[in-house]
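Problem 12. The chain below contains 260 residues. Write out its predicted structure in token notation.
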Amino acid sequence: MQYPETDIDIKKGKEKAGKVVASVRDLKKSFGDREVLKGINLDLHESENLVILGRSGTGKSVLIKCMVGLIRPDSGNINVLGKDVLSLNAKELNTLRLQIGFSFQGSALYDSMTVRENLEFPLKRNLGIFDRAKLNELVTTALEDVGLANTINMMPAELSGGMKKRVGIARTLILKPKIMLYDEPTSGLDPITSMEINDLILSVREKYKTSSIIITHDISSAKHTSDRIVALIDGINKLEGTFEELKQATDPELEPFFKY
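Solution.
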């Protein structure tokens, strides 16, 4: 499937956005009587950092879980890297997921494994790499890229919250994904550590040439990392634009985000 080129400007770098690498059309999802997603439409462009901004409980995490097939929507269409996600069988879905990095809110590290073993796990399981020299090279590089090479033999319990986030990102990057999905990357972190994670998100884009969706209710993170922001309000993508464009919007549901 060929994606169209677009004329949307990416804020950082002032260069035009590339092709669409993921799209969602009229996506709806309810849990019982509660409507969470009421017809979401969005596009993610090549090399873009797209922030999905919204209050807790507005369906931001549900959206990206639908995009990777972890939750099945009630209706709508999802296309990721040229694949119709909702039509894929289990094997095809797993193949697609290897190209998508998912940074979970809680880091999702295995507590019984060292940092090295956590990073080796996807290499062995998904790529069948068991050569010790190759494993060492890949693990060391991934940790160096998140600034934590010295943690390689530590246990998750020995890491701070920010360090766990970084190691979780390293474990995702080790498979060289084309798309990164960050779920509340600064949640529970102090302002200084949050800024370090924001800087890391930008660094990852530069080093790995990723396209990223960043789910957050943290307006500082949205400002620092975004090329474009989609405001998810009451189950729909109500507004979108750059940080400054949304800041200047008069919508009363957005105003609380910008009072800081």
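Discussion. The helical segments are 60-67, 90-97, 115-127, 132-145, 161-173, 191-208, 219-225, 243-248. Students who got a different answer should revisit the alignment rule from Section 12.3.
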